[in-house]
Design goal:
Four Helix Bundle (Hemerythrin (Met), subunit A), mainly alpha, two-stranded antiparallel sheet, Ion_trans_dom, Helix Hairpins
Amino acid sequence: GSEADNDLYINQAMVFIEDAIQYRSINHRVDSKSLWLYRWYYSRTCQWILSLTITIILALAFIEEPSSLTVTSDVRYRLPAWNPPCGLTESVELLCFLVFMADMSVKSYLIGWKEFWKNKWLMAYILTLIVSITDWIVSLSFFCTESLRIRRILRPFFLLQNSSMMKKTLKSINSTLPEMASVVLLLTVHLSLFTMFAMLLFAQTKDNQQDKEWMVYFRNLPDSLTSLLVLLTTANNPDVMIPSYSKNRAYSIFFILFTVLGNLFLMNLLTAIIYNQFRGYLLKSVQSSLFRRRLGIRAAFEVLSSLKETPANAQQPYVSAGALQQVLQKVEMDSRCKQAIMRSLKMCSCDQLSAAQFQKLFEELDKYAIKQHPPNPEYQSHFMQKLQFAFGHPYFGYLGNVVALANIISICVVLVMDADKQPSERDDFFLGAINCFFIPYYLLEMLLKILAMGLRRYLSYPSNRFDGLLTVILLILEIATFAVYGFPHPGWRPEFMGLLSLWDMVRLVNMLIVFRFLRIIPNMKFMALVVTTLLDLVKNLRAFAGILVVVFYAFAITGIMLFKGAVVPVGNTSAANATFDNGTLRCGTYEQLEYWPNNFDDFAVRKMCFHGALLHLLSVHLICRWAKIYFVAWWLISSVIWVNLFVALLLENFIHKWDRRCHRASLSDIEYQRTVELMFRDVLEEPTEEELMEKLRQHPHLQLCR
């Protein structure tokens, strides 16, 4: 009936508006049951469960065998780790797989089977689940004793497929690869040519001094290539050139040429090429998001214009204000936006809205209100008004910064004086006395600011919340110190009592004082500009960082499979070749450099010190020749490609935001500020009527009336 059709149109419009708010695609089923399922799937609870499941399955690597549950990763001191019994982590994995199967099924149903076969990500999702479940079954059949578990390497895919921004970023990276490959090829030619030069220049002779260079670094092709590759990362500089340089300083020309051409020219050329390819990447991404938002709003307009209350003989489609109000009451959106749209609708004072008017109402989504700080309290007393003026003045804040600087300098002086003293000779009186003066001042400053501004206005500033929280923590720690160890006096070195020694308590207090000095940032215009820009960059680069986590995870799991147990402590056969005849360790070896914590024995150590460990292992030649392929692949992806991609994105974001912020009006002069997603709003192109309608006509499940 017409009533049922009207309800369907209202629900469709509601979902399309929610899609627009979240920049989601509108190409999904739009019948009543599917709309209910769609809203349930994108509800906070459902998405939270999915995110939690992804986090759990990724975190399993820390506790499943080989477990990371040890205090240290140093193979000399590490105690045997607790490994979960067979079936424990596998049960958790099975629950995660069931959630992913439900997720995949709902996604596949909602987009429709025709669209499903075109969706490569969903096909890969199914394939990953099939392989993972098969591997899980094999693992249980071997009672968890098999060393190769393919499903562990595939786990990052679940994180990747759940983020549309990560998919979009990956697509952009993929389009940049051909240009990057040309520079990597040039880098390979550079390495190969200099490797051949090195093997000819440092060939074996009767000169023992020159033979040191040949024996240690350029004995054969793989060793020569590895030595120069590590030199490109500067991890073995200047060690690699010392034997030849000690004989004749002219040999340094070879290494200078290699470094200048490789590091200063080719690596920076790669950065330039990637920046050129990525210039406009964020702009394209935001343009695409804007189109999705406009398309969602237009789709809502089209379905609402199909309501039965609309006259059939109308020249132009329109939507009644009552129908829009009915939809807005059901839509899940920010309350400020909803109120602003309702306000604009009332101010419009028209019963019928055209497509242009409808879109204009929802431009409110592209803004967010700048937070209005509560007013200062109004005191009747003339004396209180003077106090309020004095302690609310910016100069009072500057005085606080000067006092904080004096505190930092005094701590620094005491630390320099006590640097060479033994713990038994150290007197904690000076640091204790300094804290007794400065911490009460910080408390007084906080209370006077609250008096001047009022508690609500004081807490409305992030810098005040930061300052106040640290002041309260410092006060609690200081009171706890006095309660346990008494007041400071000359020779104040009591025995250890409670959870922390006196020295630990004093150190903790002073670390917080140093951290508190960051309060000066908001008072320094350009420093605040840089910091806020960098914080905004962190928000913008979340998808990029997510892909980095995926790569780290996959390489870490692969490294554990390949090299677990490769590093063994001194006293075993592996150290035999690392010693001289007198039993001392050879300089520059893994053992002499004490890189024991850098190993592949568990997941946590791989994640924490990946990059340095790989370069160290390469530079000290602890690994076999074929294994070097793994390390070189990691270096290429992480250092050569990934770091340059990051620098390119950083430059694009930073330059654009710096220019906009330097020329922008004061925040107090404007009512609204654009969101991070639409910071390029002034250079974006609004989609045309024809583009929107053409896209809507291609919708696989929506039949328009016109």
